[in-house]
Design a protein that fits this description.
It is found in: Cell membrane. The protein is mostly helical.
C-alpha cells in the first residue's frame, strides 16, 4: 500500500503545477488584452495632443523678516509686486532658465533636448503664450503639475521634470513662481516633440514608476533641528533639487535613496559626492569654501565649477542670499557621510612639474605625447608647472594641483573640460576656457588628460581613446 501511494503522489504535483501555470498565463493574457485595448483606444483618438513635460524648475525665496513666516521660513503672505519679485528669485534659485531655454533669444520658450536612457525629452515653452506656452493654465493646473507631476490635461509628466523634489515646495512659493512667469514676454514657439521608445512613450506607465519613486507631500520641518537647518533642507531637497544630479539612479532611473548625495554621472559629467565624508565628499572643506563655491563657482585649492555646475552657478546659486547659502551649507554638513572608496580627498593630489619643458627641448617627438601637447595647448594659461596663473584672484587661471577634476578617481570631468571648455559668468568674474574638441583628436585629448592626471593629480585616473570618443558626443 505504501509503495502504491508513493507512485500516485508524484503524478499529482504536475497537475497542480499546470494549474498554477495556466492561471499565470491567463493573468498575463488579461493584462496584455487590457494594454492592447488601451493602445487601440489611444491610436483611435488620432495624433496625440502635445503636452508640457517640464514646468518651471523652482522654489527658494528671499526671506522677508517684516512678514510672519511658516515653519519652512516662507512669508505667509506677499502682495503684488513683492510676490513677483520673490517669484523671480525663486525661479533663479530653481534655475528654470537652464532647462527651459534652448535659444537665448527665446528665454523660457523651451526646446532643450534632454537625453535619457529611454529616449529624448524636449522641454516645453513656459512663457505665458496661450497657444504654445502655459498661458491658459490655471493656478490649480500649475500646482498639480508641481506637486503631483500631472499636466493640464491630466497627463502624467515625465520625471525629467523633477516633481519628485518640487512636491515638497509650499503652495505660497509655487504661486510666487507662477506670478513671475505670468510677467514674462509671451513667446509663440512650439518645441519639437519627445522621441521616446515604446513602451516609455505611454504616459500612463508613470503610475507604476511613481509607486516606487515618488512620495507626494509638502516639506515637513524637523522640530528637533534649527530654523537654519530646516531652511537648508527645504532648499536642497526641494527648491534646488540637488539630488537630481548628485544622487545615483536605480534601475528604474529613480533616485537611489540609500546613496543620497554620494555622486553620479550626468551626460558624461561627474557630479561629485557632496556628503561630509573626508575622502570621497567635502568633509575637509570649510564652510566658507563651500559658500564661496556656490556663490562664485570657485574655491581655490579645492575646485572650479565647470560643465553643468558652472551653468548652475551662472544662472542660479550666485543669486542666493547669504542666509540661504549658509542654510544649504549647514544642511549638507548634517548628511550621513558616504565613502565611495577613495583613499585620499580628490583635492589633495599633485605636485608641480619639474623639468618637462627642458626635457622636451630639442627632442624629436614622433608620436602622440601628452607632455608636448600640454605645453603647446595648456601651459600658456595653467603654467607649464601646472600651478596656474593669478593665484586666487577671481579671474585666475586655476592651478591643476589640488584640483578636484584632476585628483578625482575618474578623469571624466577633466576630459570633458578639454573637449567642451568652460563658461562661467558671475558677479566676480567672467571665466572662459576655450573648447579644444575641434582642435584635438580623441587620442590627443586622451594623452593630455592622462599626462595631467599623472603629473598633477591622481595617477590612477586615466581615460582611453574610446572613452574620449564617447564623451565627445555628450550633450
Amino acid at each position: 500500500m505504501m509503495k502504491n501511494t508513493s507512485r500516485v503522489q508524484p503524478a499529482a504535483l504536475p497537475v497542480q503545477s499546470m494549474r498554477r501555470r495556466s492561471f499565470r498565463v491567463a493573468t498575463l493574457a488579461a493584462i496584455f488584452a487590457l494594454f492592447a485595448l488601451y493602445v487601440a483606444w489611444h491610436e483611435a483618438r488620432g495624433p496625440g495632443e502635445r503636452h508640457n513635460d517640464e514646468l518651471p524648475i523652482t522654489q527658494a525665496h528671499a526671506d522677508d523678516a517684516s512678514q510672519p513666516s511658516n515653519a519652512a521660513g516662507t512669508p505667509a503672505a506677499v502682495a503684488g509686486g513683492d510676490l513677483v519679485k520673490r517669484g523671480e528669485y525663486l525661479a533663479r534659485v530653481g534655475d528654470c532658465v537652464a532647462c527651459h531655454t534652448a535659444d537665448k533669444s527665446r528665454p523660457f520658450a523651451g526646446g532643450l533636448p534632454i537625453n535619457t536612457p529611454v529616449g529624448t525629452i524636449v522641454t516645453p515653452n513656459i512663457t505665458p503664450d496661450p497657444d504654445t506656452g502655459i498661458g491658459q493654465w490655471s493656478d490649480a493646473d500649475f500646482l498639480r503639475a508641481m506637486h503631483e507631476g500631472i499636466g493640464k490635461g491630466g497627463e502624467r509628466l515625465y520625471p525629467a521634470f523633477p516633481y519628485v523634489e518640487y512636491t515638497k515646495v509650499t503652495d505660497q512659493d509655487v504661486m510666487a513662481i507662477r506670478a513671475y512667469l505670468k510677467t514674462l514676454t509671451p513667446i509663440h514657439y512650439a518645441p519639437p516633440g519627445n522621441t521616446l521608445k515604446f513602451p516609455f512613450n505611454q504616459r500612463w506607465l508613470m503610475v507604476f514608476w511613481n509607486l516606487f519613486n515618488f512620495n507626494e507631500g509638502r516639506f515637513v520641518p524637523d522640530p528637533k533641528q534649527s530654523a537654519e537647518w530646516n531652511r537648508g533642507a527645504y532648499l536642497v531637497e526641494g527648491l534646488a533639487h540637488c539630488e537630481e544630479c548628485h544622487t545615483p539612479r536605480n534601475f528604474m532611473q529613480g533616485l537611489k535613496t540609500s546613496s543620497r548625495f554620494s555622486g553620479a554621472v550626468q551626460a558624461g559629467w561627474h557630479a561629485y559626492n557632496i556628503t561630509p565624508d573626508k575622502n570621497s565628499g567635502v568633509g575637509n572643506w570649510s564652510d566658507d569654501e563651500l559658500a564661496a563655491y556656490l556663490s562664485t563657482g570657485a574655491a581655490p585649492g579645492r575646485a572650479n565649477a565647470a560643465g553643468p555646475m558652472a551653468e548652475v552657478v551662472t544662472d542660479s546659486t550666485q543669486y542666493l542670499t547669504q542666509e540661504d547659502v549658509g542654510s544649504i551649507v549647514k544642511y549638507l554638513r548634517s548628511l550621513p557621510p558616504i565613502n565611495g572608496g577613495e583613499s585620499r580627498p580628490r583635492d589633495q593630489w599633485g605636485n608641480p612639474a619639474a623639468d618637462d619643458v627642458t626635457t622636451l627641448r630639442g627632442t624629436t617627438v614622433n608620436a602622440v605625447n601628452g607632455a608636448q601637447l600640454f605645453i603647446a595647448n595648456c601651459a600658456t594659461c595653467h603654467n607649464w608647472t601646472g600651478q596656474g596663473i593669478g593665484a586666487s584672484a577671481p579671474g585666475a587661471y586655476p592651478s591643476l594641483i589640488h584640483n578636484s577634476a584632476v585628483g578625482a578617481s575618474d578623469a571624466n570631468n577633466l576630459a570633458m573640460v578639454i573637449l567642451h571648455g568652460v563658461t562661467r559668468t558671475t558677479k566676480q568674474a567672467d571665466v572662459l576656457m576655450p573648447a579644444f574638441g575641434t582642435e584635438l583628436t580623441d587620442d590627443q585629448v586622451a594623452a593630455i588628460t592622462n599626462y595631467v592626471t599623472k603629473q598633477f593629480g591622481n595617477p590612477q585616473s586615466t581615460v582611453t581613446v574610446d572613452q574620449v570618443a564617447r564623451l565627445r558626443t555628450q550633450q
